[in-house]
Amino acid sequence: MVFGRADLLGRVNVIILILGLLALFLLPHPWNAVAFAAAFGWEIATSLFLLWYSQRGRTQVGSETLLGQSALVITACFPTGQVKLGGETWIARCEAGATVGQEVRVRAVNGLTLTVELDEAS
Question: Pick from 121, 75, 72, 115: which is nearest to 94 by CA?
């Protein structure tokens, strides 16, 4: 089984919480409060960090995520053909024309049809 970073952090948090609770009941008086406070502080700090980390970027949804992306022509576009973008096949319209294997860049989205133009980098 493969685990990601978030899963690893979650497992570490659970272990630290369990150790903090054990320390609360098993350590002598001054140290049980110190160990529990450290575990509790770790949990709070981790929660605040993960909240900040999840809010750091604006989520992009919809057709604006396609604009400016590079696509590969899989059916010649003279002017209509097909391109592969992000593992999906799209109907594309290229006024200048594009042959199979050329890279194009998305300039507009009209319904389910992408308006593309040849990529200068290719």
Answer: 115
CB 90 within 8 A of CB 114: yes
Cis preceding-peptide flag for 28 (omega within 30 of 0): no
| The pair of three-digit structure tokens given for residue 23, joined into one six-digit string | 């320390």
HEC secondary structure over the chain? CCCCHHHHHHHHHHHHHHHHHHHHHHCCHHHHHHHHHHHHHHHHHHHHHHHHHHCCCCCCCCHHHCCCCEEEEEECECCEEEEEECCEEEEEECCCCECCCCEEEEEEEECCEEEEEECCCC
Per-residue model confidence as pLDDT tens digits over 34-70 = 999 999 999 999 999 988 988 887 777 788 889 999 9
Q: Are 104 and 82 in contact (CB under 8 A)?
A: no
Q: Name which of 118, 32, 33 is nearest 77 in CA terms.
A: 118
